[in-house]
Design goal:
The chain is mainly alpha-helical and about 500 residues long. It folds into two domains: about 230 residues, no CATH class; about 200 residues, no CATH class. The protein contains 13 helices and no strands. The longest helix has about 35 residues. The protein starts with about 30 loop residues before the first helix and ends in a 40-residue tail after the last helix. Keywords: Cell membrane, Membrane, Transmembrane, Transmembrane helix, Transport. InterPro entries: MATE_fam (IPR002528), MdtK-like (IPR048279), Membrane_Transporter-Flippase (IPR052031). It is found in: Cell inner membrane.
């Protein structure tokens, strides 16, 4: 691949013009930097969950059960498509972070140019194909007859909004890779606030707004995502962000084959992780459904609580990937190891504290999702007693896989996830349900998490993931290829004393 020379920073000039809120994640105390960087990511996860809950509230209270069924079926499709693009966005995040760590601004620009073109083509294709095939998608899902019409209307609007969603997700990931987790949070906040305000106005037709029914919820997503994306792009140019391409750099929109290959080959396994999780969830809910609607309601309520327990570990995992990737690019392998150690400890403390609070609150958290007199409430309490503690250990997998994939080693975490879900969790539940009943399902969750944690620890210690590369490094004449462990030609260790506390 024809590549610009690595940009070693000249004296007296910042390495990335217009960094603004971006930060060099290869410097400073590891734990403090990681926690500060992960807090906006955690805030964004909370906002997304809040947005979905508020939207469902307005649809269900304004339009009834049929409408919420329609929204639910369409949202399954939307989340699946966003899950696929997650992998490619994460690949772009790692490429940006590694080259920011190298102070290679020309390469950052090349990554952005290829990624923009790729996401434009992908989003346009998904939107067009999805708009045309919406009726067939809903039919294949077995959408209830009475909800099909509303679901089709909503889903087609969602497909129209998909280019905005794809670019929004991509730019958020790219900014985190460049060391800025605050700006994505601010614009996520803007998008969620607009969506929450517009939903009741467009659904019910308050004031000058037209009454659009279920379509109003779709158009509120379209408007909020589109407007927030436009504001985010504007902010990048006003701040002279290194991620923004200017007129003389538009030639970089012509895809670079090596970068394009990395986006697809490295992004696909990360996207497949979302499909593996979704597939396993569908199998588990099928098992739960066999015990009746009360048990299914209890499981649904308990799983809502699990989401909030996992949020700190998920935020840390995302932050760890960006932070580790910058240090991989800077060849700070000692610091990468400290990031892994700090991430595991912080994750255990954060998820452990969250789980402890939920246990102490008893049924209070479950009553948010179930009435106090519901027959499902004691069942949900029983489920949480057996499952909730296991998600504390899940932070080990999130942290270590976040470090591993920062190098481009993406197949190992995918295989580990598949084994934990389909070789451990599901077979265990299936084999013991005849004798243990539903308890076999509940105990399969912590068992799968323990298996995943142990495999991730083993892979981190012995997997050879440090030799992985997102793109093949150039080999100048007379210079041996870097195995990923040797001291780099330009090392950032001089910026920070080796004794910095982690």
């Amino acid at each position: 691949m024809a590549r610009a020379a690595t940009g070693t920073t000249p004296p007296g000039r910042p390495s990335t013009p217009g960094r603004g809120t971006q930060r060099d994640l290869t410097q400073g105390p590891v734990t403090r930097t990681l926690l500060l960087f992960s807090l906006p990511v955690l805030g964004g996860n909370v906002l997304q969950s809040l947005n979905g809950s508020v939207n469902q509230f307005w649809v269900s209270h304004s339009l009834g059960v049929t409408a919420i069924t329609a929204i639910g079926n369409a949202n399954i499709v939307m989340m699946l498509l966003l899950g696929v693009v997650f992998g490619v966005s994460m690949a772009a995040n790692i490429l940006v972070a590694q080259n920011v760590g190298k102070d290679d601004l020309p390469m950052v620009k090349r990554v952005m140019g290829t990624s923009i073109t790729f996401f434009a083509a992908l989003a346009t294709a998904v939107a067009a194909l999805g708009y045309v095939t919406s009726p067939y998608i809903l039919a294949a899902m077995g959408t209830p007859h009475e909800a099909v019409e509303s679901a089709e209307i909503y889903l087609r609007i969602v497909f129209l909004a998909m280019p905005f969603m794809y670019f929004f997700a991509f730019l958020q990931m790219a900014q985190r890779g460049a060391g800025d987790s605050r700006t994505p949070f601010y614009f996520m906040l803007l998008a969620v606030a607009l969506d929450i305000v517009l939903n009741p106005l467009l659904i019910n037709g308050y004031g000058p707004f037209p009454r659009l029914g279920v379509a109003g919820s779709g158009w509120s997503t379209f408007i909020s995502q589109g407007f927030s994306l436009a504001c985010l792009v504007t902010a990048l140019y006003l701040r002279r962000s290194p991620l923004a391409l200017h007129r003389e750099e538009l030639k970089l929109l012509l895809p670079d084959p090596e970068i394009l290959k990395a986006l697809v080959v490295r992004g696909l396994p990360m996207g497949l992780q979302m499909l593996v999780i979704s597939g396993a969830a569908m199998v588990m809910i099928g098992m739960v459904n066999s015990y009746g609607s009360v048990m299914a309601a209890a499981y649904t309520a308990a799983s809502q609580v699990w989401t909030y327990v996992q949020m700190p570990a998920m935020a840390l995992g995302a932050a760890i990937s960006s932070m580790a990737a910058q240090n991989v690019g800077a060849q700070r392998w000692d610091r990468v190891d400290r990031i892994a150690r700090s991430g595991v400890i912080c994750g255990l403390v954060a998820t452990g504290a969250t789980a402890a609070i939920i246990y102490l609150l008893g049924d209070i958290t479950l009553r948010i999702f179930l009435p106090a007199d519901s027959a499902a409430l004691p069942l949900a309490h029983h489920i949480n007693d057996r499952v909730l503690w296991g998600f504390v250990l899940f932070s080990i997998s999130f942290s270590l896989s976040g470090v591993v994939r920062a190098t481009g080693a993406v197949w190992g975490p995918l295989v580990i996830l598949f084994v934990a879900m389909y070789v451990v969790r599901i077979p265990f539940a299936t084999a013991l349900m005849p004798s243990w009943g539903a308890d076999a399902i509940w105990w399969s969750f912590p068992l799968g998490i323990i298996a995943s944690s142990l495999m991730n620890i083993a892979f981190y210690l012995h997997g050879g993931w440090k030799k992985a590369r997102m793109v093949a490094p150039p080999h100048p004449t007379g210079v041996a290829p870097d195995a990923g462990q040797a001291p780099p030609a330009v090392d950032k260790t001089e910026r920070e004393p080796a004794t910095t506390a982690g």
